[in-house]
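A common beginner's mistake is to predict each chain separately and then try to dock the pieces by hand. The better habit, illustrated here, is to supply every component at once so that their relative placement is modeled jointly.
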Amino acid sequence: MAGHELIERHLRTLAERLPGPVVDELADGLLASYDDQMERLGDPDAAARAALADFGDADAVTAAFVRASPARHAAFTLLAAGPIVGLCWGTALITADGWAAAIPPAARLVLGLLLGSAVLMLVTAVREQRHYHTVRLAALGGAGTVAVLDTVILGTVVTLVPPPSLLLLVALTGSVARIMLAVRAIPALITRL
Amino acid sequence: MDGLLLATLEDGPQHGYAVKEALRDATGGKLDLPTGTVYPALHRLERAGLIKGSWSVVSGRRRRTYELTEQGRRSLAGARDHWQEFAAVISAALGGGPWPATN
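With all components supplied together, the output reads:
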């Protein structure tokens, strides 16, 4: 790739943080800018510095991609849905007529671990600013874990055959809606940049 | 911002750096965005179906070129209408003239 060492170094930094096709596109833009600056300034070092100043630093460029990423948006949506669905289940379990006490300790442990893992991954996806791959993987892991968590919750409740109640119906609906949200997000997280 | 980017593609397909340059030229240099931050905005517009990207190879480099979709043209026309209405209202208010009639 024709260019300048400063340009190459900048692109290597971006390549560590962003997907390959994105880096190819950025490389084209940065090298086009370098060519323009070479025509204007005539000096390779000055042209490289001017092109890099015009391009923006790696942190700013990566953060802009991360902010616009579908993975971050999906993670934010699932994270926002968490307290709502959690509140529904909390209310349904607190007001349950004893059936909630029959949930086996092993199931409680699994649910707790899944919940903690999902929250950790989704928070990582929302907070990470510098590594696009991390955001994507964390959002994918978080969405998958949310889908498994809600499926385990539904399976556990159905197995216990609790007495029907409006609160339980609302909580079940919340979990089904969240499974659909997570399952719809997963293909886009896998295929889209 | 979206309307400005769409407007740069109205006359034909452009790659990211050319979009940034067109925006700077169209505003007499007053709007000179960092090149690297134009690309995420273009990707967002592409995901929204307002522009369509395609790859080619130019001077040995992979280049992604964008063009407006029909939806993008409609969005640009809408953005223009909204801006002209907004500008007319503000101009009338600042100029002390009568408020323009609204629908």
